[in-house]
Amino acid sequence: MSRLRLIAAFALVAGLISCGQTPDEQPSGPVLTTAPTTTSTPEEPKRMFEPPYPYGTVQAKAPAVADGMVPVVTHIPTDKPYVFITIDDGAVQHPKARELMINAGVWPSVFLNTKYAEGHKDYFKELPATVHSHTTSHPNLLGKPFEFQKNEICGNADFLTTDYGKRPTLFRPPFGNYDATTRHAAASCGFKALVNWTAAVNDGRVQFQQGDKLKPGDIVLMHFRTTFVEDFTAFLNRAKQDGLTPVPLEDFLG
Predict the structure, then answer these.
(1) Residue 37: C-alpha distances to residues 28, 30, 33, 40, 212 (Å)
(2) Residue 102 contacts residue 224 (beta carbons within 8 Å)
(3) For the chain, which has fewer Cβ within 10 Å, the N-terminal or C-terminal residue?
(4) Which residues of 154-174 are buried (b: 16+ CB within 10 A; e: fewer)?
(5) Quick one: average pLDDT of 72-88?
């Protein structure tokens, strides 16, 4: 082989090696020099709980107001694996609350006092939750005169109607304390039911009034506190462990 032919052969081999190929290799396909013109849409992250029915549709109705007194509801009669989370007061507007609710796919019922919710309308309006009444100043209503109780209950309902554009239908007495006067006052303010609870969450622990697990129809109490993340997470994990799905309380007291 002449000197010129040797030089040409070496040049050919070098060129192929620099392209990542040996003399016997062929390109596997076209090489894209620009990004694709279309992109796939990322999937939404899966929520912890998926709605078992379209939320906002009535599943059951509250017991009727009788003798001028609202019914007292502490448990929802249901044969479905449903549980209900309620959150009281509004004293601490935790910045993680909305994110936690949305990621979990959970729509709580919140019972707000005027003294805590006043001035924080934007915060509570952004929550995926339904707002209900918890009195104006959070007093113990037990044994108080009718006019005192009515002013506390109706005044709070009026405030919430103004701030949130809809009159609340459910009432929870502070500390869970009530008497016949409370039920009369709540009925006179237009409420459908007085709601208490069967389990509570405190300091990241679920506490039961009976037994050692959540049961279908249980109404769970927690609060807007600095421990909101720990408390809400404890409820979610307990519900999942006990095979229950949190659903809106309003749908069963429609």
Answers:
(1) 22, 16, 12, 10, 56
(2) no
(3) N
(4) bbbbebbeebbeeebbbbbbb
(5) 98
CA 86-227-93 angle, 5° bins: 70
Q: How far apart are CA 98 and CA 106, in angstroms?
A: 10
Q: What is the pTM of this model?
A: 0.82
Residue type, position 191, single letter: F
Helix%, strand%, coil% for the chain, nearest 5: 30, 15, 50
Strand, coil or helix: 118: coil
- Cβ atoms of 152 and 141 closer than 8 Å: yes
Report residue 194: phi and psi, to 5°. -100, 125
Q: Using CA atoms, how far apart are residues 159 and 178, in angstroms rounded to an integer?
A: 21
**Residue entry with tokens 């279309």:** 38
- Check whether 33 has a pLDDT greater than 90: no
215 by Cβ neighbours in 10 Å (0-12 / 13-18 / 19+) ranks as middle
Residue (of 101, 227, 113) closest to 172 by Cα position = 113
User: Mapping DSSP to helix (H, G, I), strand (E, B) and coil, where does residue 73 land?
Assistant: strand
- Greatest pairwise CA separation for the chain in angstroms: 118
pLDDT per position as a tens digit, 143-182 = 999 999 999 999 999 999 999 999 999 999 999 999 999 9
d(CA 145, CA 181): 7
